[in-house]
Design brief:
The chain is of the alpha/beta class and about 500 residues long. It has a domain at about 5-255 and about 465-485: Amidase signature (AS) domain (Amidase signature (AS) enzymes), CATH 3.90.1300. It contains 16 helices and 11 strands. It has helices at about 5-15, 20-35, 45-60, 100-110, 150-160, 175-180, 215-225, 275-290, 305-320, 340-355, 355-370, 375-395, 415-420, 425, 430-435, 465-480; strands at about 40, 70-75, 115-120, 165-170, 185-190, 210-215, 260-265, 295-300, 400-405, 440-445, 455-460. An 11-stranded mixed beta sheet has the order 1-3-2-4-6-5-10-11-9-7-8, with helices on both faces. It is globular and about 70 Å long. The protein starts with a helix and ends in a 14-residue tail after the last helix. It binds glutamine (GLN). Glutamine binds next to helix 14.
């Protein structure tokens, strides 16, 4: 698949038009997505209209923007004007948002073409993309395996060559884990670096929107477009929790090497880690050492409690975020409500509108907010506080932390039990960054013997995405894995 820079070179030199490029992506989706299930909605007409407008601007010699003519797949929990946003739920089956999310506005201003809305776990709850109310998603590298989740559609869309770029959301690992399972790059930015306006809430104190791409460079280009550009001029007044202006300016980050970069590796990551994933993790250690980085193992015992604390806190927030869907003000309503009283009507709307996993989290989260369970909630809050303190100490000592992204390799779609009731294991290495609010990036680290992608994760201090890109780019070049593409049956592209 062509990178952004290659596509843009083609447009500039007139080798192909934006319309031709967009058409070829749409054809590929039409031909192959039946077997993958990456999209809930494909924007055939809107994308071609947008492409034509960009071609006209090009013919007038205008600058079409940093992402001019680049197709982007958008996760279906990010609002798009005139295109439905379902959260992969029956509850929002017919919901069309009145305006674009802030990130979508930014994409459009930058000339990007929205090619479709991607399939996901319902309301972003899950780690295997198996809870969508519409269809399952297959991993493009092996169609019998899960793509990870909840942004499984976005990751699969990039891996399958349906779009060079995608947006995902990450509350406890939902960008990084599917990026790892599908062999693509995904960034969970610093909490607050990218506006959440127009992202349908799951757990607002954790939710972040972030970029996914097939190379680190492309991921960085997309991040530069969606991040809040100037937070001090009051332009994002609806986003009260943006703390700081960026310490980083990512441009030029790729020229700097790894010399003297201090990288920490937590010992706890090796416990229970898949053996092949462990080999790939240790190979990355060697590459960094050979590149001049100062690598050191250290102990981060807080890791063990993170997934449970995340699950308690995020479910408690989810119970209140999802309270608005009652089928009266918002969302799905049952067909024949005549005989029902008010309470039964809401109960029926919510029972039929939400799937099992979402209902389970609402129930669990509601319990966690009750006085009887205060001890659990308070403990989870305490863990979150400890994590933040531990992280603050860590980044005095290290520039970056290197970790595996997932403790396991992509598993079989049929192993349903693995993804419905085992989040704690699957989120083990990712939820910690959401609890702390720090940025983390997953990039392809290699492949298992059976050809399944294995990701590696880098985490940094608040607003140091530039360092993540720099270190990821170094590893990417040394590993060269991004040059490999899945071979989809019947695929002539
Ligand atoms: N797998 C995690 C969960 O199920 C993360 C979800 C997310 O980041 N949206 O909650």
């Amino acid at each position: 698949m062509m990178t952004i820079l290659e596509l843009q070179k083609g447009y500039r030199e007139g080798s192909f038009s934006v319309r031709q490029a967009v058409e070829s992506f749409l054809e590929r989706i039409k031909k192959l997505d039946q077997r993958i299930g990456a999209f809930i909605t494909v924007c055939y007409n809107e994308a071609l209209d947008q492409a034509e407008q960009l071609d006209q601007r090009l013919s007038r010699g205008e600058n079409i923007g940093p992402l001019g003519g680049i197709p982007v797949a958008v996760k279906d929990n990010i609002c798009t004007k005139n295109i439905r946003t379902t959260c992969a739920s029956r509850m929002l089956e017919n919901f069309v948002a009145p305006c674009d999310a802030r990130v979508v506005e930014n994409l459009k201003k930058a000339g990007a073409v929205i090619i479709g809305k991607t399939n996901m776990d319902e309301f972003a709850m899950g780690a295997a993309s198996g809870t969508s109310a519409y269809k399952k998603i297959a991993n493009p590298w092996n169609l019998s395996k899960v793509p990870g989740g909840s942004s499984g559609g976005s990751a699969a869309a990039v891996a399958a060559g349906f779009a060079p770029l995608a947006l995902g959301s990450d509350t406890g690992g939902s960008i990084r884990q599917p990026a790892s399972f599908c062999g693509v790059v995904g960034l969970k930015p610093t909490y607050g670096a990218v506006s959440r306006e127009g992202l349908i809430a799951f757990a607002p104190s954790f939710d972040t929107i972030g970029p996914m791409a097939s190379t680190v460079k492309d991921c960085e280009l997309l991040f530069n477009v969606i991040k809040e550009q100037n937070q001090s001029n009051g332009s994002d007044t609806e986003e009260p929790d943006i703390e700081n202006s960026h310490k980083n300016n990512c441009t030029g980050a790729f020229d700097a090497g790894m010399q003297n970069m201090r990288i920490g590796m937590p010992k706890e990551c090796l416990v229970g880690l898949d053996q092949e994933a462990a080999q790939i993790y240790l190979r990355a250690e060697k590459i960094y050492r050979d590149s001049g980085a100062r690598v050191e193992w250290f102990s981060l015992p807080e890791i063990d409690a993170c997934a449970s604390a995340y699950f308690i806190l995020s479910s408690a927030e989810a119970a209140s975020s999802l309270a608005r869907y009652d089928g009266i003000r918002y969302g799905f309503s049952i067909k024949d409500p005549q005989d029902l009283n008010f309470d039964d009507l809401i109960r029926s709307n919510r029972t039929e509108g939400f799937g099992d996993e979402v209902r389970r989290r609402i129930l669990f989260g509601t319990c966690m907010r009750m006085p009887e369970f205060a001890a659990y909630y308070e403990k989870a809050e305490k863990i979150r506080k400890n994590i933040k303190q531990a992280v603050n100490r860590l980044f005095g000592r290290f520039d970056l932390i290197l970790m595996p992204t997932s403790p396991v390799l992509p598993f079989d779609i049929k192993e349903k039990h693995k993804y419905l009731h085992n989040e704690n294991q699957l989120d083990k290495f990712t939820a910690i960054m959401n609890l702390a609010g720090i940025p983390a990036l997953s990039l392809p680290g290699g492949f298992s013997r059976t050809g399944l992608p294995v990701g590696l994760q880098l985490a940094g201090d608040y607003f140091t995405e530039d360092k993540l890109f720099r270190a990821a780019s170094c590893l990417e070049q040394k590993l060269g894995v991004y040059k490999k593409l899945p071979c989809l049956e019947g695929d002539q592209a």
